[in-house]
Fold this protein.
Amino acid sequence: MPETYTVSEAAAYLKLHPETVREMIRQGKITAAKIGRHFVIRKQHLDALLASSENETMQALSERRSKQ
């Protein structure tokens, strides 16, 4: 069974405010299921978000270095 997080747990994992996580869910940046009144987020989606963020950072650094 996949590991799941609440919004508060996901926020702690990502080191973000819970409202930021909710906004990212609304924007479609984080995939989440709404169970009753609460969101449930799979760890694999959080890890994918972190990996994507790391890739964007590395690409930006690479582009900056190539311009110099």
